Known about the structure:
By secondary structure, the chain is an alpha/beta fold. It has helices at about 10-15, 45-55, 75-80, 95-105, 120-130, 150-165, 175-180, 200-205, 210-215, 240-250, 265-275, 290-295, 310-320, 330-335, 350-365, 370-375, 385-395, and strands at about 30-35, 60-65, 85-90, 110-115, 135-140, 170, 190-195, 220-225, 255-260, 280-285, 300, 325, 340-345. Helix 1 packs parallel to helix 4 (about 95-105) and helix 5 packs parallel to helix 6. The chain is globular, with a radius of gyration of 22 Å.
Amino acid sequence: MSEPVVDDHAVDNAAVDDDPGGADRRTGGCRVLRVVSALNYGGTEIRTAELLPRLAEAGTEMHLVTLSDRIGPGPLAGVVDRCGGSVTPIPLDQRFPLRFHRLLRRLRPDVVHVDCANFSGVPLTLARLAGVPGRVAHFRGDDNQPRTLPRRVVRWAGGRLLRAGATDILGVSPSSLTFGYRPDWADDPRCQVVLNGLDLDRLRQPSDCDLRTMIGAGAGDLVCVSVGRGSPEKRRWLIPPVLAALRAEGVSAHAVLVGPGEAGDDARVRAAAAAGVADRVHLLGARDDVGGLLRQADVVIHPSCLEGMPGGVLEPVALGIGTVACDLPGVRFIRDHLPGVTIVDIDAAPQVWAAAVLVAAAHTTATDPTDAVDRFDRSVFAIDTAAATHLEIYRRHRRHRTSPTPQPQHVRPQGRPPVDSER
């Protein structure tokens, strides 16, 4: 699927040209400029796309900057466009500071909200120089992987700018602030944990697909689903050995992998499956009926080794589907608030995963889906709670305008692939 590319001239025009239809139509709302990296089917994009309609309904005018030369795939750009905002690609080159500053002058946002870990310090510093009242840094993952020297230098420099320029520092979990910002984050009054809200309405949407029929699973076969894009940290290639370990215990199982693939990662999954379970591993790719597929699962397997607040765990648990995941801080946080999570060590053998799968499948059998959804609606993960927290932060920094402010030219995404199939 091709992606619309915005050339250098179009990017600059989006930053400086007036939009005749861009008068401020808000009634007491806030104008927010959200900055993300390259658009994809990532958890940041999906969770923000779910949240945005609620923010827009409450009067928030959301505009988006992607730090790329193109508008990539995923749901977020389309949602911003439908809610009346603009999408502006500004690649990270020598002209980025000037272009970003021009966009800030034209939009005059109340808040700049950046989802780029410690690099958030760069656009937040530019926002501070432009006089933007609210400057929000948002940590989305546990930055606890080994770092090269150049990466440590960039992280240190960005962190210093962030500490000087941010008015609010958010994390999707306590661990995302511990590993991403600093261990003593609780001593910084700007820091706040804002849990990812989850849109259950999307997960309730039906699927036209009969999963067992599509994959050729028998009535007694165990259907294991995993949702995540084909990237190294998702470790999807660990799933075929788990099927082999289940077979060794006399359990017939299938694995269904949902999410946009990547050629090298897909090849690694197929190579792992070639050891006796090739007919039991099914790569479905990107889907727009994830909730419907999850509701047909006996168990969910989530072998990712790097997460903040993993949607690939939160979504099935919200539906009452038992889930096996690695021992990560975000996973433990979910387990502490909702039942249905079985945790294994990151380096656990396939036999350990197989035993955990059977425990999780038993939870699915014993759980009433309606009870699971009701419990989730009352939990700390409810999307209305996340929306209310965002609105409180944004409104705290709202400017008082006396005249309309022109907006940048809309760059409308085209030819988007299916949404909702990545975490």
